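input
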Amino acid sequence: MFKKVLVAEDLDSISIGIIQVLEDLNIPVIDHVKYCDDALLKIKKGMTENSPYDLLISDLSFKSDHRKTKLSSGEELIGAVNKVQPSIKKIIFSIEDKSYRIKSLFDDLKINAYVTKGRNSIDELKTAIEKTFRNEEKIVSSDLSLIFNDKALIEIESYDISILNLLAKGYTLENISNEFKVISITPNGTSSIEKRINKLKIYFKANNNVHLIAIAKDFGLI
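output
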C-alpha cells in the first residue's frame, strides 16, 4: 500500500473522512492541506528531500478567502504537480459530475481515479485508492461507469468546444467565422462551422442552438 499520501481539501468535514480511509488502509504518513499552493510546496519539498509522496488526493473546487493564492483549483494543482512529479498517483475526490470535464482530467492531466462525493463516496474512495495502488487505469466511482463509453464525448474535439463557447456568448455564424480567422482556427468558413453545429445537435439530440448550449453546459463542455 502507499506509504506517503497528501490530501488537498479545504473542508474539514470532508478531509476527516478521507484521512480515516487512509488510516484504515494503514498508510503511515498522511498530510493534509487546505490550499493548492501549500500542496504544491509539500510536493516540491518531498522531492527535494528525496521523500516523495506516493499519492495525491485532491478536490477540484477550493473556496477563496483572505489569502492570495497562485493556484485556485484542483486542475491547476494537478497541472503544476505534473511538472514537478509526473509519476505521482492522482485521485480527484469532488462533487463535480460533468462527464466531459471528468474525461478531460484523465486525458489531459493523467489522473488515475475520479470519485464523486455522495452517499457511498467513502467506500468508493477506499476502492479507488486500492485500485490505484494496483496500477489499474481510468478508475471512476460506480455512478460514472459509462463515462468512457459515451460516443458523443469521445468524438468531441477542441474545435467543437471553441464553437460552443462562442455560441454561448451569442456569436453568429459570421462572427464565429471571423473569430476563427483571427486566431487561425480551421476550418473557419461559415458553411463548415454550420455543418459542425448541426453535427453537434445530432450528437446531443438538441432541437436548436439554445438547447445545444444548455446540454453542453450540463456535460461540462462549456
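quick obs: The beta strands are 4-8, 29-33, 55-58, 89-94, 113-116, 139-140.
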